[in-house]
Amino acid sequence: MTIIEGKPIPGDEEYAIVVARWNELVTRRMLEGALETFRTHGVSDKHVTVVWVPGSFELPIVADRLAKSKKFAAVCCLGAVIQGETSHHEYINQSVAAALMQAGIENCVPVLFGVLTCSSMEQALDRAGGKVCNKGSEAALAAIEMAGVLRQLS
Does the active-site annotation cover 47? Predict the structure, then answer.
């Protein structure tokens, strides 16, 4: 039996992180978590490219362009969509999730969904390195693991 699984051991790959500036109080913490995770697992800063975009809705077009370049083993997308008084967050969340998945599938490059979909700022901060976890860190770890899986499948 052959078992292929991702391990948090990077090769010489390049990684990209696309970060939404909207809700930067949250997304900057997610970015810091992602960068720290890459460093902890042996990915040097020179192998990471960070691209800032205005908001979460803009993540997919940049993620798709980065994935199409074939320069990156994985693209981490970090954003925070927080529920307001209207239901606009539902449209943004669904559209962004679908577009990021499509970018990964079409380009055969992992595009990681590190977009928080929270009902409050407090909840978002908890998931950006507060009480619960850091979704940016989780996205970076998943990127390393997925790059490893794809390396094994080549």
Answer: no
Show the 3-state SS of the chain. Answer: CCCCCCCCCCCCCCEEEEEECCCHHHHHHHHHHHHHHHHHCCCCHHHEEEEEECCHHHHHHHHHHHHHCCCCCEEEEEEEEECCCCCHHHHHHHHHHHHHHHHHHHHCCCEEEEEEEECCHHHHHHCECCCCCEHHHHHHHHHHHHHHHHHHHC
Strands 74-82 and 48-53: unpaired
**Which pLDDT tens digit goes with each residue over 78-105?**
999 998 656 676 778 899 999 999 999 9
Residue whose token pair is 């925070």: 80
Domains of the chain (ranges plus CATH)? 15-153 (3.40.50.960)
pLDDT recorded at residue 149: 94
Catalytic residue among 41, 47, 88, 89: 88
